[in-house]
Amino acid sequence: MVERNQSLDGEKRPKVGLTDAKIKGLIKPLRGQVEYADQVVPGLRLRVGASGQKTFILRKRVGGQPRNITIGRFGPRCGLLDARRKARQMINDIEAGSDPSKGAKQSRQLASLTIRNMLPDYLAFKASRRRIEETERVFKRNILPEIGDRLADSVTRGDVTRLVDKVARTAPVQARNVCAQLSAFYTWALPRLDRLASNPCRDAGRPPAPKARDRVLSDVELAVLWNALDDEKEPWTSAIRLLILTGQRRNEVYSAEWTEIDMDQRIWTIPAVRAKNGKAHIVPLSDFAMKIVDGLERLEGTSKLFPAKSSPQNGPSGFSKVQARLRAALQKELGDVEVWRLHDLRRTVATGLQRIGVRLEVTEAVLNHVSGSQSGIVGVYQRYNFASEKRVALVAWAEEVQCILKRLDN
């Protein structure tokens, strides 16, 4: 067997800390092959042949016998980080009892049981759920890049914990969502995986639940934010102003479609499939809000009010960046400003409605929020939709926002 960093003819090679740049610079041996061991993943080696070809292999015992398992040829599609990721996956799968070096038929059978390949069936199973788009987004953004190519029955609670911890470093709330989405996947997958004894998410670590926020923007902050939106490009300017004028949820506004807007009746109907609580919601539009809607450009090939530039069939992304710019604008104008989020605008609207005398049950009807006066037995038997009261409330709020803006100008 070839020793580490030694060619077949016995020629010694110095130890090399592998990087993509160093691999590119390695000189081929005069004859035979030379292997360079990776210092990060045990068993991962780079084999350099006399032809100059450079191939990653994994040296690992399978069923008690040492095996050399080819990972892939070094190149644009298989760099060192790719090889390390695949080697770790192979190691985990081998330790879980599989043999990745067996025939193509078994390899295909095993490949079908990776998280990535099981996901389409899972999404089809969940297709009728209201938040299926959120489920797909979380998998594609957070889960598949990290463990998507792992055999689903080889993932441990430690793997889940490390994944959740990585997300939690920058987005603790999203980390809890990732864990919840992956746990739901495994609840579905368990009957389909013979070797998996339990849901690996069950005892995995996750960040504590966040404290309930109570941030409300002051009138001055609201006015400065409104004016700062003049410097933003669409769809941010109009969409965030509609958030301020309607009090609806961010995703409800950003995913709005033209078919939901009745221009004659001046109402916006959020369908049940897009409403967070699963109940269709009618939002009366004030003159101020209608002016914004009327000013939007209708683009061909999309039904969205606020289509993404790269994918017009979807709503836009990049909320964190625009939010950071707007925070900086308020900071520049007002000095030290408490951290706020786009969702805080919804709470600001609710607080503003209460301040101008709108009844609690009408405020909750405006927000399509089932709690407080609308929960429990009242929610079961109360079927009045407060349509006229909601219009009066949102018209009054639009007038209040205009007064706030005038006070800042003066």
What's the gist of this structure?
Helices cover 45% and strands 10% of the residues. By secondary structure, it is α+β, with helices and mostly antiparallel strands. Strands 1-2-3-4 form a four-stranded antiparallel beta sheet, with helices on one face. A three-stranded antiparallel beta sheet has the order 5-6-7.
Describe the structure.
Helix 8 (219-228) packs across helix 16 (387-409), helix 9 packs parallel to helix 13 (344-355) and helix 13 packs antiparallel against helix 14. The protein has 16 helices and seven strands. The strands form two sheets. Strands 1-2-3-4 form a four-stranded antiparallel β-sheet, with helices on one face. Strands 5-6-7 form a three-stranded antiparallel β-sheet. Residues 1-14, 103-107 and 373-383 have low confidence and may be disordered. The protein is an alpha+beta fold.
